[in-house]
Amino acid sequence: MKKTKWILLALVVALAAFALFEISHLSRQIRINEQEKVKLWANAITQKAQLVSYSEEFFANVALDEHRKMEMYINILRSFNHMDANADASFSLDYVSYIIDSCETAILITDRDSIITVPNELSGQKLRGELLREFSHNEPFHYRIWGMPLTLYYKESKVYTELRHVLDGINKSFLSEITNNSVNVPVLVVDSLQGEVLGSGNIPEREFNSAERLAQKLCEMEEENDPIEVRLATDSRAYIFYESSPLIKALRWVPLLYLFVALVLALITYHLFRTAHTMQQNRIWVGMAKETAHQLGTPISSLIAWTQYLEGKTFDQTYAAEINKDLQRLETVAHRFGKIGSKPELKPEPVCATIQNAINYLQTRSSRKVKFVTNFPDDDIIVPLNSYLFEWVIENICKNAIDAMDGKGTFTAIVSSDTHHVYIDLADTGKGMSPSIRKRVFDSGFTTKQRGWGLGLSLAKRIIVNYHRGRIFVKYSVEGQGTVFRIVLNRK
Fold first, then answer.
1. pLDDT digits over 170-214, tens only?
2. Topology of domain 343-490, per CATH?
């Protein structure tokens, strides 16, 4: 039984280790896949950040180009100073109109009193209010024509404005793609000083709603992954901080969670086994008490009968012999139960004579319809035995055989041997056993009798296996034909 428990324990530990390895391997694979997705996402963000940077550089070049156009325009206007004041004015105005029409940049020209002179549709108005703010994004040019001071204001061209809207859309899309990523990566986008959050995703706001918490969060994220530096239209530089997704973090705890569940199950299993073991021990003690009463019942009843029979009669030596047998039986029973729980002493004993003693005692107390047959070798075989316990085994098997034959049949004991072992076959012509019963016949507490406790064969196996280092098993059993038990003992 102990060996079986250790085998089961080793099997459970092996299965648990295998399952833990598989779960760890699966978790590691999922974590690697998630990390690969994060790397791909970070790479895509870096490439798009470069695109944004290139777009910003392009717009800077466009702005510089427009500034140069305005400088060229001013140089053209300044060239009028070298023309004759009496020259054809219409030609001069047509030339200026041509320059204005050919330039896509919106411009305003004012005199010293901020009165608009160009374009014609705004001529005579004073540059102020919303119109002044609209044309004040760029530094104005101051120049003179024929001694008259003029000022040129300009704003972005229509093409530049439309492209600027496109760039703003790219920036918004860029930040949205960062913060609302498909791999559920917690992200923070901060300015170059790392003091202002430009965008966030998959992170509760309470984790960065103050300067201290933001600094702490950025430090934690930087320990896990290096930040990505990008250039945005709204800032010269920005940094993208990110950390592992919640799934990756959760997968780190899966093996520990499995170990915890396995530990809980092991504790529950241990408790159940302990409870079952306690219940089994209780059944054994109850069965032992019943068996004690049963063992003592026969000689005590016999002594009571002899006492009643001898009252008022002359004493005879025959009566004394029978009474002495019952007293010896009581002594034998006391010896048997005294050996249970302690290591019995084995002495060289004749195995056939020991078997015959057990059969003789039961034969005189059994039905005459039960026939006892023995087949022993001519020379008795000496083996290490504890005769008190070994006779108990033979009696238990014999009693079960008599019950299986319903008090009518043949019980046969056959002894054979080889160089190292002695083989004892105990056969009956009773009901036989089904395969399911054969598997459980030696289990403690298992019985097919209505009033049985399932202790006899369990004790028999304990006596043979644990005390005599032998074997006992069902050699043959067919329902309706009978059963053969075999006991194997070592000769030395």
1. 666 766 666 666 557 788 888 888 888 877 878 888 888 888 999
2. Heat Shock Protein 90 (3.30.565)
